[in-house]
Amino acid sequence: MNAPDLIFDSVEVLADGEQVLGPVSMRLASVGITVIMGANGAGKSLFLTTAHGLVAPHRGRVIWNGIPADSSRKSRGFVFQNTPVLRRSVAGNVAFPLSARKMPAIEKATLVARALAEARLTSQAHQPAAALSGGELKRLALARAMVTDPAVILLDEPAANLDPATTKELEDSLRRISDAGTKVILSTHDIAQARRLAGDILFFDAGLLIEQASAAAFFANPISQAAQKYLKGEL
Fold this sequence. Notes:
Layout: E1 6-15, E2 18-28, E3 33-37, H1 44-52, E4 59-64, E5 67-68, E6 76-79, H2 90-95, H3 105-118, H4 134-146, E7 152-156, H5 164-179, E8 183-187, H6 191-197, E9 200-205, E10 208-214, H7 215-220, H8 225-231
Parallel strand pairs: 3-8, 3-9, 6-7, 7-8
Antiparallel strand pairs: 1-2, 1-4, 4-5, 9-10
């Protein structure tokens, strides 16, 4: 299993002239599941969207395996916290990422059918996507992100507003995806979920990457005062 190589080189992102992320300089080249943690406004979502190339840094570079983030998005999948759906069927939503890839119709149909089956959405394939429940929408988002067989999948608070049973299903799916060789990078506010899933941790505070460590080291002995407070529920 080859680890994708993500580099943030002195990255800064501004909003209305104010620096909201960075400067961040880091390298992530681990397999398994990386969890991004931090309080509200810490920069978790912005880090993910910048890493994927959806937000362009005002300074610095974001590189995946030697290629700029905005030029390599096809190698990754992305799951937003609030699942956007297209005005089409469930199957049509899952097929959408394949539309720009010139592949035979039979191959495309096979990939969509497999993704729907893995997401347990086969019976809803021809229903309007907007009619799905919250948990089903999360499964749809994951299927749509995985249909292209990406090397990396990034997820922004994927279990937000899910009940415990649906959260467990999602976590089981992420473990299967990771075990099959796809790098998983996700943000969460749920410390227990991070303990269950993470191989390594990126901890952000006020737009800065404060700690990067193995999950075992981070939870046993967080170095920064901000992380210590966060884990105690004080931040």
